[in-house]
Specification:
Structural class: alpha/beta
Oligomer: single chain
Strand content: 15-25%
Radius of gyration: 19 Å
Number of helices: 9
Helix content: 25-40%
Order of helices and strands: EEEHHEHEEHEHEHEHHEH
Mean pLDDT: 95
Strand order of the largest sheet: 1-2-4-3-7-8-9-10
Length: about 300
Amino acid sequence: MSNAYSLAGASVHDIEAASGAVYRLLLYVPRMEVPDYLPARTMPGEGWPLLLMTDGNSCFGTAVDALRSQADYPKGTNIGWGVIATVGYPTEEAYDPLRRSWDLSPPPGTSFPPYTPDGPPVRTGGADEFLDFLETRLLPFIDERTKIDPARKSLFGHSFGGLFALHALFTRPALFQKIIAVSPTIHWDDCAILRTEKAATFDVPVRPSVHLSAGEHEGERLAPFQEGNEDAAARLISKKTERTLAYAEEMAARLAEPDGANLQTSFENLANHTHMSAPTPAIARAVQLAFSLKQSNLA
């Protein structure tokens, strides 16, 4: 039997919130010791840039490998080193559907039938409580272990996580300087996030930038492999309500309007991807956005 794989620079921390809920932080801090054939790694004077990601169990390895494979070659990638922190749950699975439904959805929320016959009801509406945990517990925990640049903190989320990232943008615009929302469920709760957007103000020292994206097959058409499936008709009906691709593109354009929020925004249509395959290319883009060394035309 071989030894379990370990990732140099990575650590695992289970952190209890004020509510008693336990979250799993997967943390990557660049190592300073490098082989002679690589350039020296030095932490910027202001501290490391930070990429914080929701659904941490599903995205940590992809994000860290995207950074490790590029940051030692900045002339070819425009990517420097930084800290990756993903927050998830004490499970070996990619997702905890019950807990993420609560943590990542904006209030007021509601209750839905259990996922399993004997399971608890599915509750939504805990995004503000989760934001409190990030702001008062998780971010200080990271700061105690390594120096973070307070002006270079990025937040990434997909699906409900993308909706959560937008909620953070509109309700706590000083907390993160880059918001990366992938396939956000803008349609959720009768598009309540659009009302939150309308009420938002951005009178903060550093105005956040926003990158929205969604898969090509989150529009009005199914992916080719979905056509002819027994659930094809139901999927098409859902698409007309969800409008994931259209809502994201429309929001990116709206947030950039000079007479509106006037934020630096960008939008990306992820070619050949569906809702569940979109995170993989989007994580690579998030690493580029969070750790770029020179300004690009992306938000």
